[in-house]
Amino acid sequence: MKNTLRNIFHSGKFVAGFVIFVILLVTIIVYPLINPGSPLEQIGVGTFAKPGTYVSLYDAAKTSPDRERETLRLSDADDKRLAKALSDSDRVLMVEWLGLKGVDLEGIDYQDTEALLELWHENYDSTFKPKGMTSAAQKKYKRLNDALLDLQTGDNLTVMSEGETLSTIKKTDYVNVGTVTNVKLLPLGTDNFGRDVLKELVGATKTSLGVGIVAGIVATLLGLSMGLLSGYVGGIVDDFIMFITNLFTVIPGFILLILISYSISQEYRGPATVAAVIGFTSWPWTARSVRSQVISLRNRDHVNLSKLSGHSMLRIVVTDILPYIASYVVMAFILQVSSGILSEAQLSLLGLGPKTTTTPTLGLMMNWAMMYSAHTNGSWWAYFPVILTITLISFSLNLMNTGLDQVFNPTLRD
Amino acid sequence: MANENMEKKSSGKVMLEVRNLKTKYVTRFGESVYAVDGVSFKIEEGKSLGIAGESGCGKSTLALSLMGYYFPPLHYMSGDIIIDGKNISGMDPDTVRKTILGTEIAYIPQAAMNALNPTQKIIRFIEDVVHAHDPKMDKKVIREMAEKRFAELGLPSKVLDQHAVELSGGMKQRTVIAVSTILNPKVLIADEPSSALDVTSQKMVIKMMRELMDKGHIKAMVFITHELPLLYNVTDDIMVMYAGQIVERGTAKEMVFDPTHPYSHGLMGSILVPEEGTRGHKLTAIPGTPPNLKHPPAGCRFADRCKYAKPECKFYTVPEKEFGENRMYRCLLGLDELKEVYSHE
Amino acid sequence: MNEDRIVASKDFTNAPLCLSGRHVTKVFGFGDKKTIAVNDVSFDFHEGEFVSIVGESGSGKTTLSKILLGLLNHTEGEILFQGQPRDISTGKKRNAYWKGIQAIFQDPFSSYNSFHKIDAVLLDCINMRGGKNLPMEKKIEMMTEACSFVNLKFAELTNKYPFELSGGQMQRLMIARIFLLKPKILLADEPTSMVDACSRATILDMLLQLRDEIGMTIIFITHDIGLAYYISDTVYIMEHGKFVEYGKADEVILNPKAAYTKRLISDVPKIHEEWDLSTVDLANG
Hints:
The complex is a heterotrimer of chains A (414), B (345) and C (285). Chain A contains 16 helices and six strands. Chain A is elongated and about 105 Å long. With 414 residues, chain A is mainly alpha-helical. With 345 residues, chain B is α/β, with parallel strands linked by helices. Chain B folds into two domains: 1-104 and 185-345, Rossmann fold (3-Layer(aba) Sandwich), CATH 3.40.50.300; 113-184, no CATH class. Chain B has helices spanning 2-9, 59-66, 93-100, 122-133, 139-152, 169-180, 199-214, 228-234, 252-257, 262-268, 335-343; strands spanning 14-26, 32-44, 48-52, 74-83, 86-87, 105-108, 187-191, 220-224, 237-242, 245-251, 321-323, 327-329. In chain B, a hairpin with a 5-residue loop joins strand 1 and strand 2 (32-44). In chain B, 47% of the residues are buried. Chain C has 285 residues and is of the alpha/beta class. Chain C has helices at residues 61-69, 91-100, 118-131, 136-149, 154-157, 167-181, 197-214, 225-231, 249-254, 259-267, and strands at residues 17-28, 35-46, 50-55, 76-81, 84-85, 101-104, 185-189, 217-222, 234-239, 242-248. In chain C, strand 7 (185-189), helix 7 (197-214) and strand 8 form a beta-alpha-beta unit. In chain C, helix 3 runs parallel beside helix 6, helix 4 packs across helix 6 (167-181) and helix 6 packs parallel to helix 7 (197-214). Chain C is globular, with a radius of gyration of 20 Å. Chain C starts with 16 loop residues before the first strand and ends in an 18-residue tail after the last helix.
């Protein structure tokens, strides 16, 4: 046993997978302690806030008194503000105007804010209306010009409270973020319902792992007992179990999963039910391999000797056969967990996962992201971290499995 | 008998000489197992040498080491392997594979017959072997060559167009031997070539190897087996190996009927053959197990199991002692002392 | 070795019957895939007899041994145990039969459950033979006796796992197991083919001792005709599922009648007689 463990932890692949998995586990356990609360709490009012640090404007303006302000004279502050304020579509609009005005467009750099603005102010003329330009378009250019002027002029902002001027904020006024009372870090932004994606993701990973492990346990236990029974007893029992196993193998597992999930109404479809359903549809694979191993073990001399010693069938199976396939069963279990998590994700993506109000799962997060078109409006943070997490879990589990395989089957060692 | 037949052919030219060869295995945990620890011997042209010993004594490792082709976990440490005047030890493995294997030396492992790829015809293996050394040779020429050789060795030529699965175990093994000696290697190393076969097929394999020697296709042979009666009938000389070292060397007849070293004495006493006298024969047993070659004992390696060991046997390194006509043994006790103790049994 | 071992084999024809077979046949598969592994064999093994069944691979000797052990059901024929038809139809009856017959198998490395310690193997034998309620000291005494019978020291084996022993030691421990179980019949299926020549003598000696001291009938299954000749009283030569020849060991080996036996004996390399390679027809086989 000690030697086996030593061998296992000598395998680079297993250790790599194990480390990734442990990091994920630690995150799941530790993160909710640091950031408590329901993972489905809706903190945002809008949808899909971008990842980043959010500072309360009110606090920044009001609760930082003059003594906490610093005056920083940064020469590039104006340029930065302008560059950031000028969106790509605005820039296109400006160049369009310049084109209409007959300016030579050759050599104009869209990203060079300063040069572009200079050209604009040289050429803008609110009365200019070439043939074919609608007045709406003319007004559009006018609005753009006003906005640009506004950006470049206007030195101070006045903070008013009920008609009374509280303070004036200069362009050169800076506040240390640390002094602002309300700062919210949203590393992965918010999702369509305005929920913190990171918090949701950690909660979802926890549920999904749970689903995977329960599915893995159900599938492994079912597969193991079926395989043992069919392999050791043989005869009619074997034929019958193999018939059922073949049935399950012939019908595509995922379709079976969809049909069963569909037939369970949503109120009853909690994570545990989904896990059980997944486990129930994925055992034949384990059963088949356990059976073939048991058949070869059954003819080993130590089993024959155990029979000759008069041991009962149950005892022979438990003490003379199970220990030999234990390593294999552990590997099968790891794979079942991995495929259980994937199956949950697939099911939930199709809207057949656990009911949507209480717990997030990785599949549900994908489902929400898809329903609210996160992929088309560029809100990558709503689905990409989920995909990455699923990949990491599968990757680590499969690495562990390959590592174990190499330890237990020395022929595979390189 | 075999031994007399061979006598005529020997020209006294040394075909294979091994000098103080040492090789080791390195386990996954970095421990060294000194499986061949200072082996020296010579084989003259037309002669065959048998190596006997129990499992784990290093005889199979010696066979592997003799090829000069080392790959992990087997590592070369020191010593020389000289084939017909050419020292191949310390050569780079790729050169050995391209220029030595198949033409200078051929190796047949125990499970050789399982090495045939079942999807290919036998002729393809021969083409592969030949092309490895002469990539330009025409396939027709190879075929003629193979047919001629197969006919000489009594193998039906239809085998060339068959797949390995269509052949019986004995036929497969004979085919493997024929394929691996197609380029007339000077030395053939056979590691238990017939142990997995039944007695009739075994006899065929042996007869074929004998023909290869008689017709001069191979010049010398190293034959490894744990079956002493077989070794006695196949080879001219026999070496007994124990714990990585040679403990005794002599002609087959001398070794079987007049062993000197206590270990070979024990081995020869355990021979069982279906002929008169076997039932009354007293079977000797050697209790205990061979030493762990990770940490070979300091003195005589056999001392722990030896009935005749003296206290000093465990401390003195025993040298190889030459005696008689090209015989050698490795024991602290003198020849007369040994003769004396054996006569009391 | 037993110095006074009789060179000529003993005659057992008048000894009480221990295990007999009448027209035992075993067929595997159906229809086109049918193979007859054991083809209508009859035999009488007597009490205290050392019988060898000699055959090459594929002769059906292993199938026959499984049938004799009751691990495999034969298709036709009858097996008699101590003169009575053998009944192993229920678990209870099978266990009763297995009190009378035990086995040692070829491969010592696969004969042990590598997850169990050695003491457990021996302790199990005592427990299975009604010694469950004996005090521990008595059990240890019995195990020590069994181990010393096979020249092993029980004290050195406690808390060890089988794979820490050598093949020869493992096989001897199997004999210690038999010593504790004391069955009427011991079926030894090539017990020495995977151990070294040096340990072979010890194991054979112990088998003879079991026969001589406990009066066990020993059925020795082997492919090595020299070994069969050395050790057994009676030899059965098996080819393609049939006994082609049987009789007293020295008669069969020194004066074989069947062509197959003759070929088998002539093909084995010998040391005093010439091993005639000229009889080999290379073109066949």
